[in-house]
Amino acid sequence: MIRINLLPYREARRAQRSQVLGAALIGILLLAAAFYYGIYSIFSARVDTEQAKVDYLQGVTNQLNTQIASIADLRKKRDELLAREGIITDLQAKRDMVVQVFNALAAETPDGVFLTHLQQSGDALTVNGYSQDNDQVAAFMRNIQASKIFTNPQLNIISKSKLGSEDVGQFTLQMTIRKPTAADKSAQTPGKQEVQP
Question: Which positions carry the signal peptide feature in this UniProt record (predicted)?
């Protein structure tokens, strides 16, 4: 006997194919979502790692900036201390200069010359005085030129004047105080100052 299938097999095949196609499409979508999520996770982890490196480098940079600022402050303090040390050294070198100037003036002033006024401005020294003769002023200038303390004597004014009943010459003399050299400083031992005869 012949059997005839009257059921719509083509529609059933189509329905079965569309179910398989839908399942395959859902599977592909799930695989694509899993793949995308995996790539996103990998790149997100890399970004987090790089951000951690950037944060670490930023922290190190901030520490270095703080250290650089403290180094700049230390250099400024060092420069201030060196300036103070230079001032103290300069004062130390000049502390006995007044005594040396007066000793040298007393030693270099010839007989017949009387000093009345002394004025110092930096290394320049101006001396006013009286002399019995112009030759004594010239001898005074020669003594100053040969001195270890003074140099460059210049006679500004010499004029006739009366001191009591005597005729004298009144003069104004400028000279320069020599700065002590390293050899002069090494020649002087601590506690013993060089005294001019």
Answer: none
Q: Which two tokens stand for residue 175?
A: 């000279």
Domain boundaries of the chain, sorted by first residue: 11-108, 111-177
Tokens 């670490």 -> residue: 56
CA distance 133 to 15: 146
Quick one: pLDDT band at residue 177, thresholds 50, 70, 90?
confident
Q: How many helices (H) and strands (E) does the chain have?
A: 4, 4
The Cα 90–Cα 165 span in angstroms is: 47
Contacts (Cβ under 8 Å, ≥6 apart) of 196: 100, 103, 104, 107, 108, 147, 148, 149
**Number of CB atoms found within 10 A of residue 170's CB:** 16
User: Residue 176: which residues within 8 A CB-CB, separation 6 or more?
Assistant: 123, 124, 125, 150, 151, 152
Q: What is 111-177's CATH number? A: 3.30.1360.10
146 band by pLDDT with thresholds 50, 70 and 90 = confident
Q: What is the pLDDT of residue 82?
A: 93
